[in-house]
Amino acid sequence: MASSGRTARGQDLRDWIAHMERAGELIHIEGADREREIGGIIDIAMRGMNRPSVLFDKVPGYEPGFRVLSNLLTSVKRIALTLGLPEDTSEVDLVRFWRDYMKNAPTIPPKQVNHGALLENTFTGDDIDLLKIPTPRWHEGDGGYFMGTGCMVIMKDPESGWINYGAYRVQVHDKKTASVMISKGKHGDILMRKYHEKGQPCPIAVVVGVHPGLFAVAGLEIPYGKNEFEAAGGLLGEEIRIINGPVTGLPIPAEAEIAFEGYVHKGDLIEEGPLGEWTGYYAGGKDMRPAIRVETFWHRDNPVLTGAIPGVPPNDDTFYRGTARSGAVWQELEAAGVPEVRGVWSHEAGGSRMWLTVSIKQMYAGHAKQAGLIASQCHAGAYANRVVVVVDDDIDPANINDVIWSICTRCDPRDDVQLLHGCWSTHLDPMSYPEDKHNMNSRMIIDACVPWNRKASWPDVVRNSPELEKDVRAKFGAFLPKNW
Ligand SMILES: Cc1cc2nc3c(=O)[nH]c(=O)nc-3n(C[C@H](O)[C@H](O)[C@H](O)COP(=O)(O)O)c2cc1C
Predict the structure, then answer these.
(1) How far is the C-alpha of 379 from the C-alpha of 118, rounded, in Å?
(2) What is the pLDDT of residue 1?
(3) CA nearest neighbour of 308 among 163, 170, 460
(4) Fewer CB within 10 Å: N-end or C-end of the chain?
(5) Ligand 1 pocket test: which of 142, 153, 169 has the largest number of ligand atoms within 8 Å of its C-beta?
């Protein structure tokens, strides 16, 4: 165990694959095609949580050994193992881990190296061929082949030199052309505009196939100005080994599976999409997006393309990010002065954003309302939220059955439901207000805690006391199924 109490996490995807294999968290499928079958299987795999990752090989029409890995972080166990936590880590303990990570914000600077497995195959000029990678059409209605979903898109601030990376979808159009879709206001969008306002092309690198811990940071809202490689080092507990792209100078993980670098020129747009998105709809449609003109392309021998596929939740985009978001909301509630928060859960069916449950130990009248309103508006919770439920500390916020029971029995809709109008949302939310109202939405805050003024006379709950629970588990635990 490392000094933090966690085991070493590594930073090479191949070590992660071997680790998941040993843990029974990965299956292999050979012969599925990239047009319908890989996506079709992943759609089935993602319909429930805690199903294994799938590694595809022998994709018809492509070199055997050129693989596709998907359904990455859709199990609590896989997320825990990726982070070096014990495999039996509970949902709320995972959220507690993320809360502490957000609060302490550990950083380890990356280390520049001159070698790495990524350099096994390097192509420039007319030798570049992005089409040799078996990029799937992930859903039947997708408008093309998205190589970048479980990816890192790396950019640099032209003024300060700050390095940022984010997970932004990347479509492949031909041998040397890709495109990127970055929502307005995301860091990549701000950085790209800075170059274009100066009349310069924007250097960009896209990395596909890295250790899921490195990828995870790409999808997190790391603060503006903070180097995400440093944040990833802090998460994985070691310096990230990077090489510098010869054309753009951008840092690229030395053990990445597939990467390319190039430029986005001002006004150089290409028809992109649609891609089935994280809300479960094709709400974004087709549009003109920035084209990436590729100048260097690398891949390892027998490369592995990673996909983190959006669609009807739950999926990668929503589940691992939901646990991290819950940690961030918890941390922001505490930072706003809300006492006795006992847990937060962003339910996976809400796409990591639309449903938040907050558990508190009620300390005063109005405490639950305060927690609910702040959770719905703090930075980590505000974007595209729809429902916030506040429950008492006897309720596990990750147990939807208990949350529904709490709403049904501890909430009087006349007094305990608050509607907020004109909140921050997105065009991907099919219920957001029309475009002319800037895609804002409304949302509901449900106080499902025992009413403060009735606490003293509230009836007892029909469930084992903690003592009886402990006693029977100690005496009969060996005879009970593991998941009881
Ligand atoms: C699998 C996955 C796909 C994503 N796709 C996009 C996307 O296409 N465009 C986008 O703007 N954000 C997308 N996001 C969300 C961003 O990655 C996320 O907001 C991240 O914080 C952005 O990085 P930034 O804070 O450095 O801008 C995606 C996230 C994940 C996990």
Answers:
(1) 36
(2) 40
(3) 170
(4) C
(5) 169
* Burial readout 214-239 (b: 16 or more C-beta within 10 A, e: otherwise): bbbbbbbbbeeeebbbbbbbbbbbbb
Query: Whose C-alpha lies nearest to ligand 1, atom 23?
Result: 166
Query: Cα of 409 to ligand 1 centre, how many Å?
Result: 38
Where does the pLDDT of residue 435 fall: very low under 50, low under 70, confident under 90, or very high at 90 and above?
A: confident
pLDDT surpasses 60 at 291: yes
Tell me which residue has its CA closest to atom 28 in ligand 1. 167
pTM for this entry: 0.92
156 lines ligand 1 (CB under 6 A): no
* Average pLDDT over every residue of 384-390: 97
What φ, ψ does residue 282 adopt, rounded to 5°?
-90, 55
User: Which residues in 157-249 belong to E strands, given as ranges?
Assistant: 163-166, 169-174, 177-181, 202-208, 241-244
Task: Say yes or no: do domains 89-307 and 336-472 share a fold.
Answer: no
Pick the closest to residue 312 from 141, 438, 68, 181 (CA basis): 141
Query: Could you say which architecture CATH assigns to the domain 89-307?
Result: Roll (2.30)
CB 345 within 8 A of CB 397: yes
Q: Name the one residue in this structure whose structure tokens are 């390319």.
A: 260
Identify whether the C-beta of residue 440 lies closer than 8 Å to the C-beta of residue 425: yes
In the structure encoding, which two tokens stand for residue 475, read together?
Answer: 């005496």
Smallest Cα–Cα separation from 132: which of 302, 306, 307?
302
* Side-by-side strand order, sheet with 241-244: 111-112, 241-244, 251-253
Atom of ligand 1 nearest to the CA of 182: 11
Distances (CA, A) of 1 to 7, 17, 22, 96, 422: 4, 20, 18, 19, 48
Domain ranges of the chain: 89-307, 336-472
Largest CA distance in the chain: 78
